Amino acid sequence: MASSAPIPAGPLVQLADLRVSFAGVPALRGIDLTVGRGEAVGLVGESGSGKSVTWLAALGLLPAKASVGGSARLEGRELVGAPASVLDTVRGGRIAMIFQDPASALNPVLKVGRQIAEALALHTDLSGAALRAEAKRLLDLVGIPDAGRRLDAYPHEFSGGQNQRVMIAMALAGRPDLLVADEPTTALDVTIQAQILDLLRSVRREFSMALVLISHDLGVIAETCDRVAVMYAGRIVEEAAADRLFEAARHPYSRGLIGSLPPLSGPRRRLTSIPGIVPDPRHLPTGCAFAPRCALALRSCAEADPALGAVAPGHRVACLRADAAAATLPPAPALPVGLPAGIEVQPA
Ligand SMILES: Nc1ncnc2c1ncn2[C@@H]1O[C@H](COP(=O)(O)OP(=O)(O)OP(=O)(O)O)[C@@H](O)[C@H]1O
Predict the structure, then answer these.
(1) Ligand 1 centre from 27 Cα, in Å?
(2) Which of 155, 216, 204 is nearest to 176 (CA)?
(3) Ligand 1, atom 16: nearest CA belongs to which residue?
(4) Interface confidence: ipTM more than 0.85
(5) pLDDT tens digits for 130-181?
(6) How many A from CA of 214 to the centre of ligand 1?
(7) Atom of ligand 1 at shortest distance to CA of 49?
(8) Confidence of residue 332 (pLDDT cuts 50, 70, 90)
(9) Whose CA is nearest to atom 11 of ligand 1?
(10) Residue 54 C-alpha to ligand 1 middle, in angstroms?
């Protein structure tokens, strides 16, 4: 629970060389990322790039067979290898996480009011009528009409979007400093997706909370986030302010993702797709993992994996061909702010 203690200097969360492998197969290959207080950071990348594992590792939520190395600090306190007593206070209380499929995260045989109350009981001193009143307030806050009555409904009596609202209410119960939303809208209809993103933006403001939004949809990220980290095969390959990424992405993979977004205005154009598939983590190529799919790759790209280096303040890229990418690959479309998440435009 957020306290009135002085706010420590430095980032809220700092991941440094965070590494994860499963039975020797790498899933994360050294993630460096910071999240500032109140900041909204997007993590984007194809399926399997390591977006979810990054945050499951930081919160100690991976199965025991996962081998985790490197560091994940919350206000300077190390979470990797921290005892369960520390992680129990962090999870929900300081960092909450919501997932793609709310129906499977909720208990189908418990009324939603009881589930919100249980989350509140874990993180507050409330009990009895005060607990129920706070559960109703949270349900109201996340936009469930007639919240007092709906406390006594079961998850199957709610729509998918409403269940995601319930999950957000439960996540807010501990007044976390950071909400990690892992593909929160992927399972929902397009119109509902936009409403849930609106809700995330408004609760972030209301709770002065940082947000990490995980999505494979760059449009969703652009609408919501201040900063974006692009992940590929267990690494961050580019990181920049959201508007800068759209205007001046320097990694061929990021430019490929942007090129696959429909333009908001101007002439329709053929959408590009990135050829090839994500490499099998058991057989990663030597050098840059994107090189086999990259139109600009040189022989040197297959020799060493480039480090994530600064190309401008706040803009880091891991690519030997970053200059060539900016000069030769198709220009990025306009920043898709306001684009309803997931809306597809037919290629011209
Ligand atoms: N419990 C697990 N056991 C073995 N491998 C795992 C486990 N969880 C994740 N992985 C592997 O770790 C890698 C990263 O997975 P992760 O779920 O983080 O990807 P992602 O970018 O979030 O993808 P998606 O968008 O599909 O959720 C993948 O290769 C995945 O197969």
Answers:
(1) 7
(2) 204
(3) 50
(4) yes
(5) 999 999 999 999 999 999 999 999 999 999 999 999 999 999 999 999 999 9
(6) 13
(7) 21
(8) low
(9) 27
(10) 9
> Residue 317 is part of which domain span?
12-94+176-348
From 43, 49, 54, 98, the mutation candidate for ligand 1 (largest count of ligand atoms within 8 A of CB) is: 49
Q: Does 7 map to a domain?
A: no
Domain-located, residue 99: no
Residue nearest to atom 1 of ligand 1 (CA): 63
Task: State the DSSP string of 107-148.
Answer: -TTS-HHHHHHHHHHHHS---HHHHHHHHHHHHHHTT-TTHH
Among residues 144, 170, 196, the one where a domain terminates is: 170
Please tell me whether residue 281 adopts helix, strand or coil conformation.
helix
CA distances 125 to 85, 111, 130, 134, Å, are 18, 21, 10, 11
Residues 47 and 111 in one domain: no
pTM for this model (two decimals): 0.90
Q: pLDDT tens-digit profile of 208-245?
A: 999 999 998 888 898 899 999 999 999 999 999 999 99
